[in-house]
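Sync notes, pocket subgroup
Present: LS, DG
LS reminded everyone that the earlier model was apo-only. Rerun requested with iron/sulfur cluster included. Inputs:
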Amino acid sequence: MDKNELYILYGNEPHKMAKEILAEIKIEEEIGRDELIGIKPNLVLARSSDSGATTDPELVSGVIEYLQEKGFKNIIILEGSWIGDRTTRAYQVCGYDKLAEKYGVPLIDLQQDSAKNIKVKELEIKVCEKALAVDYLINMPVLKGHCQTGITCALKNLKGCIPDSEKRRFHTLGLHKPIAYLNKALQQDLIIVDGILGDLDFEEGGNPVQMNRVIAGKDPVLVDSYAAEIMGHNIDDIPYIRFAQELIIGEMDLGKARIIELNKDKGAAIKRKSGKIKRLVQNVEEEMACSACFGNLVHALKRLEEQGRLNHINEKIFIGQGFQGKELTGIGIGVCTKGAHKFIKGCPPTASEIIKELLSIY
Ligand code: SF4
């Protein structure tokens, strides 16, 4: 897999999807037989993955199973939850205890680990020693919003690999710069994003948006740039992405990326919607919309609400395969709604594309 490539697989079967995407990128060809493989999920707190906060253990189980089937035995899972929670509790509540037992994979609590100082330019960063000892690091963040940094995905997920004292210091340093610097101190080899269900705007979960996709890449800057795009954020609103590019960690220009969509979303089922999401979509008429498409629309409407532009949309919004071939009075989202008198092309259109078009109309 080249560093400029991003693989996207749509669906809602995490275990199967993890194996499929790894078979596509053939990671076994780049890992030495005896190398220590570390899997870093996002278990920021003890809350199950259906909240939109944490990495689905089924996605991790697919990665472990694939690696074990290829003969890799030296695998660990490592995480340090946020200061307000204990990693051991998160492992248990999020289903990782069972996973570890089933596959014989140790769970490492980085909150209990010692740390080493790594100097990156003018900044010294404490990084957990067990994370530094890993030969091949697989970062498995959740695609979700964050109340301070806009999004949290590949770059920010490494914050679980520093001691609690350092997490506190990162906040005093304004988060963005130290997050970028941390990614220079600790490098990741592969990123597999749990983009099946992630929170709308909060790292703690509670307003899950079904986005139905797994994203794989090697460049955390490119992965985060893509995450920002599909959640409808302007890249300049997330300074750590640009800082990371300036540190030559990766490339944020999606124009230079090769985005490989391995399939199309077929999942028409939209799971439960929280009150916040119901409010955002009150003007939306949905009929058999793919979850990926609907998820992008939810993020787009949220961004417009933040900009005070949501109430400028004074027409009905249509989305879903049920509108194929129908004449519609209002605005359509995606190729299925071609019959609307205004429609936004794409299958699915990204949140950024939806925002751009809606802003040009209203
Ligand atoms: S445009 Fe239609 S088929 Fe394409 S993702 Fe949206 S709902 Fe699904």
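DG: The chain has two domains: 5-261, 275-361.
LS: The chain has a mean pLDDT of 94.
Action: DG to write up.
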